[in-house]
Amino acid sequence: MTLALGCIADDYTGASDLANTLTRAGLRTVQTIGVPADDLALPEVDAVVVSLKSRSIEPGLAVSRSRAAEKWLRGRSASHVLFKICSTFDSTDAGNIGPVMDALRADCGEAVVLVTPAFPETGRTVYQGNLFVGAVPLNESPLKDHPLNPMHDSNLVRVLTRQSRTQVGLVDLATVTRGADAVRARLAELAGKGIGAAVIDAVFDRDLETISLVAAEHRLSVGASGIGLGLARALVSTGKVKPASASSDAGAVVGGPAACLAGSCSQATLQQIANAERAMPVLHLDPEQIVAGTSETERALAWARPRLADGPVLIASSATPEAVAAVQARHGRDAAGHAIEQAMADIAEGLAGAGVRRLVVAGGETSGAVVDRLKIPGFLVGVEIAPGVPVLRAVGAEKGGMLLALKSGNFGGPAFFTDALRLMR
Ligand SMILES: Nc1ncnc2c1ncn2[C@@H]1O[C@H](COP(=O)(O)OP(=O)(O)OP(=O)(O)O)[C@@H](O)[C@H]1O
Ligand SMILES: O=C(O)[C@@H](O)C(=O)CO
């Protein structure tokens, strides 16, 4: 396999967002869960997105897993590797964006790494190094209340400086607007000063196209699906990849029972759950019971099993920022998050055992726990449900053919769950 583009994603929903973007731009793309095992049969593709669950783990572990993924991708001739992070730069001052970037930069000998989480299609833009979510700076957006990585600073030069060993510079919008040569000159200037990473402004897709023409000449970039789109377009426009048409359907019909699981506590997901109440039975889990280790999982499965024959069900742990803060105050942020993720994985396993073959999951960490438990090694990308969320068809012997949708917390319209199930036939 010879790859035109290698990608390492720090969570599974982000990986499917990127795989969707690359597929839509004409790259044959597969999403793998972790570094693929030698015996996993992969189709001939232009891009592989290796999904890691490395956004909120201990930085040393995030670094070692990312390096292993990079080694695998470079071993398949990927001259450029995109480290896919969240378009809202989800991370803490300890990492993991900076430490992973530093390690991958050292491995590939890059002088200065281009960094931009801009993804205009979903309202993420960067100006003067400040990340905006829609009309508001990151620190005023709902991300200030994220259960695992609350974001309190919109200035990415500052945020990345706190995480990285290298100095961080800025390529501003005025430079990007002057074109690729101006960006090259600015990067050379930064590299000359020993600055190893540059946050780059981008407001429109055309800015990302300019940035990506330059990024494609480098070995490494860090960003979200916006730069992924730019890189894909650069590969197609320079003739390095012959564009493939995106598949127009999700493949063979799977049928059978369907279910939705929500562990995301984002405003978007809370609204989508409220909307789903009108379309399907919804069970709200009790986080206190989960953390206390009682039989909340069995209660959920006993509730779901008799209902599955009548149509889809939704099981949610999602709660308001105030309720999340109360649970975290009592049990600790990581302990609560981990216990709830594992409960979701238990429930997913039980649902699959009850015959569910179509599963929608909301939340990156939640999706990671579920997909790991189901032991799915990778996905082919089907139709797009909403920007950044495709229908995924599992590959591999055990769960092959099963359909999933892994929704990033903030993505999708109010009717996301019913939209997804309509396309997952
Ligand atoms: N009621 C709750 N109280 C406390 N923590 C919760 C509750 N429900 C879910 N969680 C935890 O909150 C975290 C949500 O993270 P997750 O990545 O799944 O969603 P997200 O951050 O909205 O999605 P994304 O990363 O795709 O943007 C998980 O660790 C989950 O277990
Ligand atoms: O970039 C995004 O916003 C998403 O793909 C994501 O990573 C959310 O977890």
What does this structure look like?
- The chain is α/β, with parallel strands linked by helices and 425 residues long.
- It has two domains: 5-237, Putative sugar-binding, N-terminal domain (Rossmann fold); 258-423, Molybdenum Cofactor Biosythetic Enzyme, Chain A.
- Helix content is 39%, strand content 20%.
- The chain has helices at 12-24, 59-74, 97-108, 156-163, 173-177, 180-192, 205-215, 225-237, 267-276, 287-291, 296-304, 321-331, 333-353, 364-373, 416-423, and strands at residues 5-9, 29-33, 47-51, 81-84, 113-116, 124-127, 130-133, 136-137, 168-171, 197-200, 220-223, 258-262, 282-284, 313-316, 358-362, 378-386, 389-395, 403-407.
- The protein has a 15-stranded mixed sheet, sandwiched between helices.
- Strand 16 and strand 17 (389-395) form a beta hairpin.
- Helix 11 (296-304) runs parallel beside helix 13 (333-353).
- The longest helix has 21 residues, at 333-353.
- Bound molecules: adenosine-5'-triphosphate and ligand LCNOYBR7.
- Residues 11, 13-14, 17, 86-88, 119, 224-225, 364, 388, 408 line the site of the ligand O=C(O)[C@@H](O)C(=O)CO.
